[in-house]
Amino acid sequence: xxxxxxxxxxxxxxxxxxxxxxxxxxxxxxxxxxxxxxxxxxxxxxxxxxxxxxxxxxxxxxxxxxxxxxxxxxxxxxxxxxxxxxxxxxxxxxxxxxxxxxxxxxxxxxxxxxxxxxxxxxxxxxxxxxx
Length: 131
Prior knowledge:
Strand content: 5-15%
Number of strands: 4
Mean pLDDT: 88
Strand order of the largest sheet: 3-2-1-4
Radius of gyration: 14 Å
Largest sheet: 4 strands, parallel
Distance between the termini: 15 Å
Low-confidence stretches: none
Structural class: alpha/beta
CATH superfamily: 5'-nuclease
Shape: globular
CATH architecture: 3-Layer(aba) Sandwich
CATH topology: Rossmann fold
CATH class: Alpha Beta
């Protein structure tokens, strides 16, 4: 099955968080690794905000990780935008315990559009139709 990496998983693996080994093992089990530009941008912002990376450092670490892991980018177009509206309505912040933000909604939409499994940290996706 194809895996779509959410920003949370990218950040956890790059920074060696406590669940990094489990997330990395999930990636290793499947060579169809994907991500979206939205997730990558969210990961860059997260590395900057929570881990004190500079923008250049975050970009460099993400590029190294994606290249080493053989990731391919999925397209985000009209279908994904329309699909992202569904998890926003159903699982968005202040409407559902999953509290999907914009990045989560697009990761959700990309997983659906590509018949893929989302790779994420936490339990927010488990509380949705993808869980």
